[in-house]
């Protein structure tokens, strides 16, 4: 899976990039047909948000989350994406 990480009003440090890569590798364990992911990390005053678009085989999944801590935002984002991927995987396997 190719991961494109973009920061808006935030500098992407190596530790932040490594954290995102580790979290997104968990998504690959559940569903291996993820082509690429585009993640945007944004800081606006006290709100730090994370958005991601995953390009799956035949579909796209989008989720966003916001929190006061960037790492917590990423965790919430992964939880949302995980639920959506499992739902999509269930639909694909059912058909």
Task: Identify the notable features of this structure and list them briefly.
95 residues, alpha+beta, 39% strand
What features would you describe in this structure?
The protein has 95 residues and is an alpha+beta fold. It is 44% helix and 39% strand. The chain contains two helices and four strands. The chain has helices at 14-30, 70-94; strands spanning 2-8, 34-44, 47-56, 59-67. Strands 1-2-3-4 form a four-stranded mixed β-sheet, covered by helices on one side. It is elongated. The two termini are 25 Å apart.
Helix/strand layout:
Elements: E1 2-8, H1 14-30, E2 34-44, E3 47-56, E4 59-67, H2 70-94
Parallel strand pairs: 1-2
Antiparallel strand pairs: 2-3, 3-4
Helix pairs in contact: 1-2
Compact overview of the structure:
The protein is an alpha+beta fold and 95 residues long. It has helices at 14-30, 70-94, and strands spanning 2-8, 34-44, 47-56, 59-67.
Radius of gyration: 13 Å
Query: Spans with pLDDT under 50 lasting ≥5 residues?
Result: none
Quick one: how many beta strands?
A: 4
Task: Give the strand order of the largest sheet, numbering strands 1, 2, ... along the chain.
Answer: 1-2-3-4
Average pLDDT confidence is: 90
Roughly what fraction of the amino acids lie in strands?
Answer: 35-45%
Question: How much helix, percentage-wise, in residues?
Answer: 40-55%
Total helices: the number is 2
- What is the succession of H and E elements? EHEEEH
Major β-sheet profile? 4 strands, mixed
Q: Terminal Cα separation, in Å? A: 25 Å
Q: How does the helix and strand content classify structurally?
A: alpha+beta
Tell me, what's the shape? Answer: elongated
């Amino acid at each position: 899976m190719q991961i494109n990480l973009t920061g808006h009003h935030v500098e992407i440090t190596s530790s932040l990039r490594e954290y995102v890569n580790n979290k997104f590798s968990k998504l690959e364990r559940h569903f291996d047909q993820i082509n690429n992911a585009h993640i945007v990390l944004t800081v606006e005053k006290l709100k730090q948000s994370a958005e991601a678009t995953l390009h799956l085989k035949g579909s796209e999944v989008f989720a966003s989350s916001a929190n006061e801590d960037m790492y917590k935002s990423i965790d919430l984002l992964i939880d949302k994406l995980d639920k959506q991927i499992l739902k999509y995987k269930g639909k694909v396997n059912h058909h």
